[in-house]
Amino acid sequence: MTTLPAQTEKKLGLVIDLDTCVGCHACVISCKGWNTENYGAPLSDQNAYGADNSGTFLNRVHSFEVQPDDGAAQLIHFPKSCLHCEDAPCVTVCPTGASYKRVEDGIVLVNESNCIGCGLCAWACPYGARELDQAEGVMKKCTLCVDRIYNENLPEEDRQPACVRTCPAGARHFGDLGDATSDVSKLVAERGGMDLMPEQGTKPVNQYLPPRPKDDMPEFDVLAPFLAPVAEEPKGFLSWLDKTLEKL
Amino acid sequence: MNQPVIDLSPKVSDEVRKTTCYMCACRCGINVHMKEGKVAYIEGNKDHPVNQGVLCAKGSAGIMQVNAPSRLRAPLKRVGPRGSGEFEEISWDEALQIATDWLEPVRRDNPEKLAFFTGRDQSQSFTSFWAQGFGTPNYAAHGGFCSVNMAAAGIYTMGGAFWEFGQPDWDHTKLFMLFGVAEDHDSNPIKMGIGKIKARGARVIGVNPIRTGYNAVADDWVGITPGTDGLFILAMVHCLMKAGKIDLHYLAQYTNAPVLVINNPGQADHGLLMRDEHGKELVVDRATGKLTRFDQPGVKPDLAATYEKDGRTHRPVFHQMAEMYLDDQYTPEAVAERCGIPAKRIRAIAAELARVAFEEAFELDQSWTDFRGEKHDKMIGRPVSFHSMRGISAHANGFQTCRALHMLQIILGTVEVPGGFRFKPPYPKPATAHPKPHVGVTPGAALNGPHLGFVQGPDDLALKDDGTPARIDKAFTWENPMSSHGLMHMVISNAYAGDPYKIDVLFMYMANMSWNSSMNTRGVIDMLTDKDDSGNYVIPKIIYSDAYSSEMVAYADLILPDTTYLERHDCISLLDRPICEADAAADAIRWPVIEPDRDVKGFQSALCDLGAKLNLPGFVNEDGSQKYADYGDYIVNHERRPGIGPLAGWRGGDGTSVGRGEVNPNQLEKYIENGGFFVEHIPAGSNYYKPWNAAYQDWAVGMGLYDKPMPYLFSLYVEPMRRFQLAAEGHGDRQPPDHLRARISEKMSPLPIWYSSEEENKAEEFPITALTQRPMAMYHSWGSQNAWLRQLHGHNPLYLPTRLMRENGLSDGDWARVTSPHGEITVPVLEMAALNENTIWTWNAIGKRKGAWALEENAPEATRGFLLNHLIHELLPPKGDGLRWANSDPITGQAAWFDLKVRIEKAAPATESQPGFAPIKSPVGHGPKDLTWKVGK
Amino acid sequence: MHPAPSVIFFTTFSGLGFGLLFFLGLGFPAVTGWMAFAFFAIAYAMAVGGLLASTFHLGRPERAIKAFTQWRSSWLSREAWCAVGALVLMGLYAAGLVFFQTRIAFLGVLGAVLSLATVFTTSMIYTQLKTIPRWHMTITPVKFLSLSLAGGALFAGQVSVALVLLVVAGLVQIFTWVEGDKALANSGTDMATATGLGTIGSVRAFEPPHTGTNYLLREFVHEIGRKHSQKLRAISLLLMVVVPFVLLVLPFSHILVLLAVVSHVAGVLTARWLFFAEAEHVVGIYYGKR
After folding, report:
1. What is the mean pLDDT of residues B273-286?
2. Can you tell me where the transmembrane regions are (chain C) (predicted)?
């Protein structure tokens, strides 16, 4: 099972829009809530009400400051979860076959009952997408809400990952990135979606849409006609006013 | 490949119960998934008008809140000294009896000796009704230190405000400009809106010294110097007026810009608006050239014409505006340095506003009829919208700054038009349609009317016959005449000082006054624990209600434990702060989706019991028996006016009436069936131009929002402010004390002005501004004891701009001492480049006191976390005139916590933030060590 | 990387144990009976002890047996097979020597090969990880093998071979450090590729996702000062190579050999601590740490 499928029928994944993510952590907690109650062992928390508190999360929002050569520094919120790579190194290193990539949709999953908690898959993942649950001793990772997206007990429109359903800014999109005609593929094409750490050769399925250029409002010269004075003095202004009102 | 077979369709829950979130003030609809009678998972309700299915981090973490170990378990009676945290659990009977024994004599002899203030609660329509029945004038919620400037400026200027009371027309706006907003009220709708317009390619401009959250995704970030927003706005007003890029039609038709101002120097009516014998404002009709009522059918109000009478020239408001704002003091060049924004950029932004408002104007093919009876074939859209909150309001110049922003909106013609900013019912509603403050106290009887309101002039101030303040918080006095939300932040210090008078019982709800809800935390703690010469506490009795073991619990004598939000009834009512949309009236309920496993009671239900025991009008039947069994009973059966109750949906005996209708005993069941909310859409054609749209006005009357149509003009010129100026000039019977005359004259300008408060805050010695923001995952959430959320924000570094890091030789993780005129803190620092170079900031209310919130005493919130509150005082530093001036807006009394000026220096590495406070004893013990949460097995 | 005692102990002692087994399998020293028992006992104690130690690193050690299933793709699984294979074959081989004074040469040679293969597979567990550029180098298996052989020779009392192998292992170790110090920079993975934001400007980690710690930080981020690591490198080289070398060239004495062995083990443990502690996992980039 640890060998990767030669190809998958679909490439389900997320498209994350760095231009609109406001860094609210809604996806983080929604994920925590769903996956604590659902797939596999709960996502545990240690020292929940004390010092050095920590817990298992399958999705975390980083933030980075980018300083352009020219202009103000920018702050970019950066959600990160499993990218469900086509060449998932976490799968092939697994000694027990617990980690696998699904043939039908490309989702990378951990079969927890086979996991020995050796941690090697987490070592092999460049993105920090896997966390060893400290209470259960098994590896936890984003399941792309495999127990939601096909779940017949959920209304059709809710069959999407919890993080996508909850994202207030609409910065997360879910779909088949193997299908060039899908909405997500089109979004990636339009906005120049990018791989994280392409040089690692993991071929991530999840794509990131770069922030649009910022602080690039046209120079005043271009906009100057919009502020051409109607008069220099208040008196002149009132006569302009009178004339303009006449035309109304 | 033999993949494991997994269950792709596991059962999600046994049942979904739909109610309203209360993790913050946003009031989203939530689906609470139940398994075996327990809360298993919480998600957003897709049908809900507020959040349409999305939910923020707080909302999703609700499960940790309803199971938090910090939940209080039973009524508590203090047995140790105040502040020790030593309590014994008592029964509700005993607790209510103690409260009755304390309150009965107060009501009988002098009701003003009860001060009843509620914090983050949103049942003010109910709590104020209770307080009114009790008869005390001393009631308010926390708006005074929250954002009253924003509310009052909005309502006085345009009959509605930002907060959650209005919203941009997200479907049409093309330029969205945010001032001073981090996470805020209406948080999910704003996130949804920003996402929506950015997907469309609309531009977002963020004006904020700090580039986080919404400002981080803004296309353009203006890292303004704190407190100068008003100046920046007036410079843009200057540019736009000078270029004639203003909506003259809009100004003439819908605002008081054409209304004539009486020119009668030295007389009592100088500067008031010219009115006819019915009090209607007068304009010059451009068609006839005659003096005409503003609402006369067919009138074309003239912005330019003057009116000669008795040898004097009376000019319209707009003339004054031109004179004032075309002045060179408002050129971009004149303000650039002070605002920290290059003049070129100010012009570019003003030009962009003009370009989008006028070049990208559009029309909706929708006819409508205005209040003058004129029919319009189309609705003109100006796709520029604004939003703003505390960043501009929590300054001593906040009221005028908020007014300036509304003026900017109005001259561009972008309020209540397609693509602009729109009100949500029950707004628009002009200040004159709101109540005025009432302070008529009669021992043993109800107050003579609602406590809070909108003064129209000195006559409406809450003063006793001897001119002293009638209210303990000195709201509606000469010090802060237009304090529409009261001044919760002054209650404890005034009660302690016995100024204006002593009180006997302080009764508070959801207000963490001994910690993050007070300025000068240490001082407040001392006031709460100080005793007089005879060994009695200076504030004799304190009753407090909270669901959690907050810092304030230790400082009360009697604790009434509240429920969590999933264990209670609530109504998010049109009488209060509903969940309406710009296109719909909507209200909602909470209902007990789980039953408490503790001996606790919803605070409002406790007030129903207490109200009955005290025989308060409205809380007992004619036979003296208890009128409302609990809050749910009140929500269904209370009528504020005949046919108008807390909930607008499913009224009438058969449940088919909307807005108005008799009581429906099954109303709550109908709400629950509908997902916990009710929506009534505003008909197409009525949903823009609402203040002037005859169809909307009629619809609003039908809904019971008001009793007769009340179209009005936007008040660019706020006449009530002029009335206060006139008093300061010596006119009228009610006169301000002399030391306030100059200030009133200067600050109460009826047209927006800007002034600095740097000098009062000793900016020369303390040159850096210190701000706070609430993180999105914590904003307005009640406490940080939430096991999931506290992992996101377990402590709060002080963020310093790169320049200040370098100048002070600081690196990430170093410690710095921050000193203000009032106090000193020592805290860890972190560098932030996307920050105004003279501003430092931190996340607010992450720091917790040791022993509170069921956290371990070594929790990072209690060791590294800190509050800026220690640096802020409710009074300004002495300025040598023998007086102590309040650290608040002189118009509304809004606490000016964003005026905080500090200096910093590197400190030795420390292990704990300073000042440190001794631990308080937790009345609930500590939480469990580890959590492996799973409800379904 | 977090220098977990379990993995340091495991790689050090299984390397030494299988190194010793390699020599024993080839018939060096040619011992039988009790002497053979003693040598094999030491070798098994180290190899098996190391393997047992590694299970302390597991979240669910009771399922360790499942690790044998994925030999086609997983180096860890291959290691398990090699280790068991080597231990079984060498066990039979040892039984011949101890109980029958018979050396079954083909078992010994095969066992020796499997012993080395075990060390190689162990090294490949680390080498394969592209995420840890300092390990993802051809020299890594050479280092594991050369150290294992040097230690094995030392334990096996093969002084002249040991002298040569110690020098080789020492040189390989130095080369590894030199190359390793450039590995992260040469890997092409940095803040710009990690975030894709490099085209806008220089990228800096701001607030971490959580204010507290997490599994990733505990497991992958271990920052040690450069000065500190240089000192430890010198110490480990001294203990691992220089001291044993000197002790071995001195006139032979059992005490000196024992001291050489002890010094070598201490040196290898130190080097192995550094192997983990100095290794930078690329995930640290997201946290602005290494």
Report:
1. 96
2. 7-28, 34-59, 80-100, 106-126
User: Domain B166-423 class?
Assistant: alpha beta
Q: C66-82 pLDDT, tens per residue?
A: 999 999 999 999 999 99
Residues A42 and A23 in one domain: yes
Nearest beta carbon to residue B791 from set C204, C207, C210: C210
Tell me: do A25 and A133 sit in the same domain: yes
DSSP structural state of residue B328: G
- Kindly list the distances between the CA atom of residue C175 and the CA atoms of A62, C153, C172, C178, C269, in Å, as whole numbers in the listed order: 36, 22, 5, 5, 18
Q: Are B529 and B514 in contact (CB under 8 A)?
A: no
Q: Which CATH number do you get for residue C146?
A: 1.20.1630.10
Q: Is A46 on the interface with C (CB under 8 A)?
A: no
Which residues of chain B does C209 touch, with a Cβ-Cβ cutoff of 8 Å?
A: 792
Q: How far apart are CA A211 and CA B331, in angstroms?
A: 34
Gap from C173 CA to chain B (nearest CA, Å): 35
Number of domains in chain A: 2
> Domain locations in chain B?
16-55+567-681, 166-423, 768-907
CB contact under 8 A, B349 and A217: yes
**Alpha-carbon distance A71 to nearest alpha carbon in chain C (angstroms):** 10
pLDDT tens for each residue of B210-261: 999 999 999 999 999 999 999 999 999 999 999 999 999 999 999 999 999 9
**Same domain membership, residue A93 and residue A70:** yes
SS3 label, residue B638: coil
Chain B positions touching C206 (Cβ under 8 A) are: 832
CATH topology of domain B768-907: Barwin-like endoglucanases (2.40.40)
**CB distance A200–C210 less than 8 Å?**
no
Q: What are phi and psi of C180, to 5 degrees?
A: -60, -35
Residue whose structure tokens are 């144990």: C17
Across the interface, of B58, B196, B240, the residue whose CB is closest to A170 is B196
Contact of B837 with chain A, judged by CB distance below 8 Å, is answered with: no
| C214 to chain B: closest CA residue | B791
Contact status of A192 with chain C (Cβ, < 8 Å): no
Q: What is the pLDDT of residue B1?
A: 52
Could you tell me if A131 lies within 8 Å of chain C, comparing CB atoms? yes
Which residue in A75, A154, A165 has the most chain B C-beta atoms within 10 A of its own C-beta, making it the best mutation to test that interface?
A75
With respect to residue A7, please indicate whether it lies within any of the assigned structural domains.
Answer: no
Q: CB distance B304–A245 less than 8 Å?
A: yes
Whether A135 and A64 share a structural domain: yes
Q: Which chains does A contact via 3+ CB–CB distances below 8 A? A: B, C
Segment holding B168, helix H or strand E: strand B166-168
Alpha-carbon distance of B113 to B294, in angstroms, equals: 46
Task: Give the minimum alpha-carbon distance from A97 to chain B in angstroms, rounded to a whole number.
Answer: 10
The domain tally of chain C equals 1
> How distant, in Å, are the alpha carbons of A97, A130, B149, C194, C200 from that of A4?
11, 18, 61, 24, 35
Inform me whether the C-beta atom of residue C211 falls under 8 Å from chain A C-beta atoms: no
Q: Given B55, B69, B240, which is nearest A26 (Cβ)?
A: B55
**B413-470 residue pLDDT tens:** 999 999 999 999 999 999 999 999 999 999 999 999 999 999 999 999 999 999 999 9
Contact between C283 and A126 using a beta-carbon 8 Å cutoff: yes
Q: Is the distance from CB of B167 to CB of B581 less than 8 angstroms? A: yes
pLDDT in tens, B304-342: 999 999 899 999 999 999 999 999 999 999 999 999 999
Q: Which chain A residue lies closest to C215 (C-alpha atoms)?
A: A131
Residues A183 and A80 in one domain: yes
ipTM exceeds 0.90: yes
Q: Quick one: average pLDDT of B131-149?
A: 93
- Nearest by Cα to B83 from B556, B558, B560, B547: B556
Q: Which range of residues forms the domain containing residue C197?
A: 5-286
DSSP letters for B810-861: --TT-EEEEE-SS-EEEEEEEEESSB-TTEEEEETT----TTSTT--TT-HH
